Amino acid sequence: ADCGTFGDSAPFCGALLSDGLEKSASEEELKATLDETFGAEFLRQHAFDRTWSAKEQRAHLQALLTALKGQYHFYRQTCLAHSAASRGCDQKAPSDLIGRIACSPNDDLGGSGCVYAELRRCRSDACSSSPGFFEYARFHGPLQLLRTKGSRDQVMGQCEEFSRAAYALVSSLGYQARYVLDFTDHVWIEVRLRREGSAPTDFTDTEWVHADPSEGVLGNPLMYEQGWGKQLTMIYAMTPWSIEHVTHRYTKDYAATEARRGIPEKTLTAVLEMVNNRLEYELPTRSWGHGWSSNGAKLSRDRDFEDLALWSHFA
Question: Given this model, what pLDDT does residue 39 score?
Answer without folding.
Answer: 97
